[in-house]
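Entry 14. Ran structure prediction on the chain below.
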Amino acid sequence: MNKIKNPQELLDFMSNNINYGYLGKDGRVYNYTDPDFEQEWFKEYILETHEQVLENLSGNCWDQVEFERAWFLENNYEIKTIYEMVLLDYDNDYPSHSFLTYKENNNWYWFENADFNNRGIHKFNSFEELINYQYKKYLELLNTFNITDEEIEKIIITEFTKPKENSTAHEYLEHVINSKQLIDKKRVFNLNNIKKIHTTELGTKRIKKNLKIANVDIINYLKEIIKSDECIIYKKGKNYYCETADIIITINSYNFCVITAHRVNK
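Output, structure tokens:
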């Protein structure tokens, strides 16, 4: 690992050399193509150290994050390791994921190797923007599993410290689930409720005037802004605030009525 000089070289090394799998308690390395891979993981899994990942050239997202942690800390990066899950039974049918983020030149980056579909280094203006993006992306994935509204309320995203080496699956989950919560269930804007957004005739006139726009369907226009990756959503008092670099949208949290929207003064 001493020859790896920057995050891109680390990603290249991992994508070319580290297979997706896990180490079992009996010392067996399970590969994701093995027929008993899913069946055995919760019972057999132990968390690999970064040395074991390098020796076995294998690891799932939990293991790969620890491999990444070792390199980034050795090279003096500020990092945060993140876990996302639907908090039902520990061994449930919904996907969960661990990933590493790091800070460089006042930007935050999501470093991803284990998730083939999102492999890469993804840049964000702030850590809050990164987490907001991840929440939206995770919700989109869960919707393909026909997740219910009640189950959506059980989504957690946590920031966790280094777990105990060779933790079992249960021990690992106990550690990450009981770590710092990054989303407050009372503050999270469930994007499945976007269909409920509406406004009054007076609100439409006010919003169009504030935004200096005319011939548009104002609700569809605002929905697209809210769904965009750069939109940060938070709750303050009785309202949701949906904020981009240019626009702030204020929505009543009880009935999803858009109260107003205005451009940000720069």
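Residues 127-143 form the longest helix (17 residues). Will compare against last week's run tomorrow.
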